[in-house]
Amino acid sequence: MDTAEISALSVRNLRAGFATKDGVIVAVDDVSFDVPKGKTLGLVGESGCGKSVTALSIMRLLPNPTGRIISGTIEHHGNNLVDLSIDEMRKVRGAQIGMVFQEPMTALNPVHRIGQQLSECFFLHFPNITKKEAWDRSIEALKRVGIPAPETRVTEYPHQLSGGMRQRVVIAMALACDPGVLICDEPTTALDVTIQAQILDLIGQLQADLGMSVVMITHDLGVIAETCDEVVVMYAGRVAEKGTVFDIFEKPQHLYTTGLLSSIPKLESPGKERLSTIPGMVPSLADMPMGARFAPRSGHPKIGEYLESAAFKEERPELAEVAPGHWVEDCEYVRVFG
Ligand SMILES: Nc1ncnc2c1ncn2[C@@H]1O[C@H](COP(=O)(O)OP(=O)(O)OP(=O)(O)O)[C@@H](O)[C@H]1O
Ligand SMILES: [Mg+2]
To answer: pLDDT of 246-302, one tens digit each?
Structure first.
């Protein structure tokens, strides 16, 4: 079947990186995934694995001039976003794809009233709209995200709101023009746990109401379990494993995935038991082998052999489809064994 019919967004062989004084570092290295229409796809992995760079590539918001998309395609509504002009991309942002960042204050301007900032979103996409209409729509947008007394809140400045309320405003801004896709990059990490749950519920509710597709970026597998249909596990810029949330939680095939899973607390475990952590560090991007990048941390009994081999230095493992739609890096040294 044509993936365009069932996918809201198709990322194919995306490579993106940064020009640094030591040369180009590739932060996202040949990553592919599809965001199914109306569903939630999670991107999960440790800090630095390339989640935000993937999101910023989709939005074409990599920092200029150092960051750039090196190759690959991002198909959305019959367009390859990688090829769009700055003006064309500006129209896509907000109107077709909205984004929510981790820290609400990065998306809000401290010196402008909430209503002014929301109105800006409307002016950008509906040039003929009047000020009054934009203001009224701003109040509606705040209502939609559950902000009490929106007629008052719309006149306030960001610092007058709590963190959770600010994130609601950011979500309202991202959704102002009814995008079909919402990208949430760690939308709740900066918030208290109770507020986190409320924001995730809100996103789920809005998704159900509006039929949006969501990309949920997080390092928290608990959030993934609660919100996602499909999951992409990233390690050091690459896809280690991807599949349905059931595949990933019930039949993980990559030792990195099992490592992540064993580091989340379980209700049934005794309180004082220490959580396991994955030993070792994520290698530096400037010094990456071609081979399976998780290998040095995998704990495989014969890992020494592999780390010494030419294959580790030179051969990139493909992804193998172990069950329909369930893909894992095809290298025996990082695959679940025994
Ligand atoms: N502006 C930049 N210049 C150079 N390198 C960068 C830049 N931004 C990110 N990187 C590098 O790209 C890699 C991927 O970063 P990214 O921000 O995508 O990670 P992440 O998975 O989002 O991590 P986190 O969970 O901490 O948000 C990291 O090694 C990071 O150091
Ligand atoms: Mg990030």
So the answer is: 999 999 999 999 999 987 766 555 555 555 677 777 767 777 889 999 999 999 999
Q: Please name the residue whose Cα sits nearest to atom 30 of ligand 1.
A: 48
**Please, which pLDDT band fits residue 190 given cuts at 50, 70 and 90?**
confident
User: Which atom of ligand 1 is nearest to 234's Cα?
Assistant: 21
CA 178 to centroid of ligand 2, rounded, Å: 24
Phi, psi (rounded to 5 degrees) for 191: -110, 160
Give distance in angstroms: CA of 218 to centre of ligand 1.
Answer: 14
Cis check: omega of the bond before 65, within 30 degrees of 0:
yes
pLDDT, residue 274, reads 56
Domains and CATH numbers, the chain: 3-235 (3.40.50.300), 236-266+289-338 (no CATH)
Rounded Cα distance, 305 and 291, in Å? 13
Ligand 1 atom with the shortest distance to the CA of 50:
18
